Amino acid sequence: MQSSQAVDIRWANTSSFERDFKAKIPGMDFAIYKWLIMRQGVETVKPDVHLRRFIESIVHHSVSDRELVRVLEKVADELDLKAYELDWRIWEYQRGAQYLKTTPISTIDAQSQAGVTTFIDDDAGYLNWVKSNPQGFVLNCERNPRPTYLYLHKATYFTITGRPASGKLWTKDYIKICSLNREQLEQWAKGKVEGLLHPCRICNP
Questions:
Q1: What pTM was computed for the model?
Q2: Residue 137 reports pLDDT greater than 90
């Protein structure tokens, strides 16, 4: 007998927006449908505002939800990425781009304290830390931290190590707050900006 999870996954992979949802479920538009089947493991993207802004800033014209999904699924395939991974990378990039800061380093305590290490303009030090502490946690935030942009990752998560997706630097426009203890990062966020951590939806720190 198949588990309910297996049944849900099979349904999601064989479902159709037109057949199963359109005009049948109030408020269920195409974007919500894509989000729903993504939650069941289908390799696709959700055509939300962040992805739309990203694509339209490149092509310089409006795109439909279906066109956006088709293009990004193709791009993910060409980049050898899971579609949801590309979705998240763009989502996080667009969220950060709205609040990009160039605040001087003096506004942030760049010293290690209470088990928390802050890396600003120090890619070498940051990459050495994540390599030496694979069991640790990394908080990605703006150079001038804001409570609305505090994203937590595992130190081993591929999008925060190696070569930055933007091809630039890890600790310039965005800085890295690192610790072996998640609770210490939660205390840092509360004490510095009165904010809460936003755990990565993919690496689940």
A1: 0.47
A2: yes
Return the percentage of the chain with pLDDT > 70, whole number.
83
Residues 78 and 118 sit within 8 Å (Cβ to Cβ): no
Q: What angle do CA 167, 170, 176 make, to 5 degrees?
A: 160
Confidence of residue 162 (pLDDT cuts 50, 70, 90): confident
- Give me the DSSP letters along the chain: ---HHHHHHHHHHH--IIIIITTTSTT--HHHHHHHHHHTT-S-----HHHHHHHHHHHSS---HHHHHHHHHHHHHHTT--HHHHHHHHHHHHHHHTT-----GGGS--S-BTTEEEESS-HHHHHHHHHH-TT-EEEEEESS--TT-EEEEETT-GGGSSS-TTSS-SSSSEEEEEES-HHHHHHHHHHHHS---EE-TTT--
Rounded to the nearest 10 degrees, the angle between the axes of helix 49-59 and helix 65-78 is 80
The predicted structure's pLDDT at residue 166: 59
The domains of the chain are located at 4-97, 105-199
How do strand 116-119 and strand 150-154 relate by DSSP bridges? unpaired
Question: For 88-119, what is each residue's pLDDT tens digit?
Answer: 778 767 655 543 333 333 333 433 445 788 88
Torsion, Cα of 156, 162, 163, 165 (10° steps): -10
